[in-house]
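User: Hello! My lab partner asked me to get a predicted holo structure for this protein. The small molecule is zinc ion, SMILES included with the sequence. Please write out the structure tokens.
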Amino acid sequence: MREQVSNLFNDFVALLFPECCLGCQELLARGETTICTDCRIHLPYTNSHIPANGADFEWLRRFYNKVPVKHALAYLYFARSGRVQQLLHELKYRGHEQIGEVLGNWFGADLKEQDYQQQFDLIIPVPLHRRKLRKRGYNQSDSFARGLGQALNIPWQANALQRLTDSATQTKKSRLERWENVEQIFKITDVDQIKNQRILVVDDVMTTGATLEACAVVLLAAGAQSVSVATIAAA
Ligand SMILES: [Zn+2]
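Assistant: Hello! Below are the structure tokens for the protein in complex with zinc ion.
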């Protein structure tokens, strides 16, 4: 009875305050949450995790001659307009953390079909500098890490890496200077947690790959067995 009343109440609330898809702003149908079925079908999937598609070559190339990254995976193609940009904007700036978890769950299920769960021991989101974290209230990569972890049944650890400097000061420097300063950008909080582990570092967007590269350098220096990277989108 109580459950029926609460269902009725939820329907009533939905009628008064209909929820919109966070990708296309269309009204969600009953049973849909966060992202509508139409978006789910039409999102620009890279499918780079499927070995027959040349696997992750496209993104892996960005790390060649810089740092040995085992797998580089991106779920979606990033475009400056459209659903992916909208989703990332809602995730990052409008408090809709659940987007990361939903996309992490979906991507994780795809990765599981290709047996990627055998490839990693620990998932680590790229951390925000504490100033930025305080301002935003959450790290947009945490919920993506959580979603992937749930789907792949792999633990994730938000505080394994610590960001010591703001990305703003980091991007002003040349790549070489950045590399030399890598240990001033990211710090490992507990080396024992990293040692001999196969790490999957996750972030919202991959552009040049410089941030992920810096994480990989620090993790490998700390004794990680291997480092792979995965992002919601890649530009
Ligand atoms: Zn939609």
